[in-house]
Design brief:
The protein is α/β, with parallel strands linked by helices. The chain contains 15 helices and eleven strands. It has one domain: Glycoside hydrolase/deacetylase (TIM Barrel, Alpha-Beta Barrel), CATH 3.20.20. Helix 9 crosses helix 10 and helix 12 packs parallel to helix 14. The longest helix has 19 residues. It binds zinc ion (ZN).
Length: 298
């Protein structure tokens, strides 16, 4: 019998459509496979339409067309927040967030995903704190329990944001890419709270980057097998794997099961490997298949 390998799975929920349609689909599938995951919710205004249109620069447009944004995300997402303020996701999706929380770990992705992703590098302390506070308090009052984890939109954060985040007492955050859990080192030699980095590429990064849809699941399974035996983290999106590529995701879970890969929440992943994690530097990095920079463990 193959040795079991644990892989942390996080589900990022960026939009109203992803929460309304992707979440129920994913909850059903995860239940069928008896998998618990970590869901990071966006709960403020859905302005993500602006984000997708911003990506339409000539060079990136060619890559984006490989996943056909209109059929992948749908017009509803591409339109959100283009005119006026986007609808508040949390207020419109209380039922689905509560339902998720009954079976899975729930954390904060963002109050306003679009604004954070595009401006966090220039935000001052007050604004960062305001957004974290709005998002965390919304989830806490809805679920009536403390929210103990967070994940920055698009793996975009800053030293200031990581410093501000310390006041929110998350037991961990997953704001960066990297290879193992660590504490981010600041320029004044102090450090931030625990980071659980994502180690594996996302669907859009791979499909934008020469791997065909047919080869995708085998590629991910292979990547998981090549990674450290004790630590791998995979991200899916409610908008992508929860809607248009649901069947593909089901196939991935089935393949993973046959290979002895067991998906779990990020908390469960580190509980098992509760070591003294190192303090590491972090840098801005370009990731193949993704527009702009992300923060990565150095
Ligand atoms: Zn996101």
């Amino acid at each position: 019998m193959k040795k079991e390998k644990k892989v942390g799975i996080r589900i990022d929920v960026d939009t109203l459509k992803g929460t309304q349609y992707g979440i129920p689909n994913l909850l059903e599938i995860l239940d069928n496979y008896q998998i618990q995951a970590t869901f990071f919710f966006t709960v403020g205004p859905d302005n993500m339409g602006r984000h997708f249109w911003r990506l339409f620069k000539p060079k990136f447009l060619i890559k984006m067309l490989r996943i056909n944004p209109i059929t992948t995300y749908g017009w509803n997402i591409l339109r959100c927040g283009l005119i006026g303020k986007g609808k508040k996701i949390g207020d419109n999706c209380k039922y689905y967030i509560k339902l998720t929380s009954c079976h899975h770990e729930v954390g904060l992705h963002a109050w306003d995903h679009f604004s954070w992703q595009n401006s966090i590098h220039i935000w001052k302390e007050k604004k960062i704190s305001y957004h974290l506070s709005l998002g965390k308090s919304f989830l806490e009052s809805l679920l009536n329990k403390p929210i103990l984890c967070s994940a920055a939109p698009g793996w975009k954060t800053s030293e200031l944001a990581l410093k501000v985040q310390k006041d929110f007492n998350f037991s961990y955050s997953s704001d960066v890419r990297g290879v193992n859990p660590f504490f981010p080192l600041f320029s004044d030699n102090s450090h931030g709270s625990l980071q659980i980095p994502v180690t594996l590429p996302t669907f859009d990064e791979i499909i934008n980057n020469k791997i065909s849809l047919k080869e995708y699941n085998a590629f991910i399974i292979n990547q998981i097998k090549q990674q450290s035996t004790y630590y791998s983290v995979y991200t899916i999106h409610a908008e992508i794997e929860g809607i248009k590529y649901l069947k593909k995701f089901k196939e991935l879970l089935s393949l993973a099961k046959n290979e002895g890969i067991k998906f779990c929440t990020l908390s469960q992943l580190i509980k098992k490997n509760n070591k003294n994690f190192p303090v590491c530097k972090f840098i801005r990095k370009k990731i193949s298949g993704r527009e702009g920079w992300v923060i990565s463990q150095k």
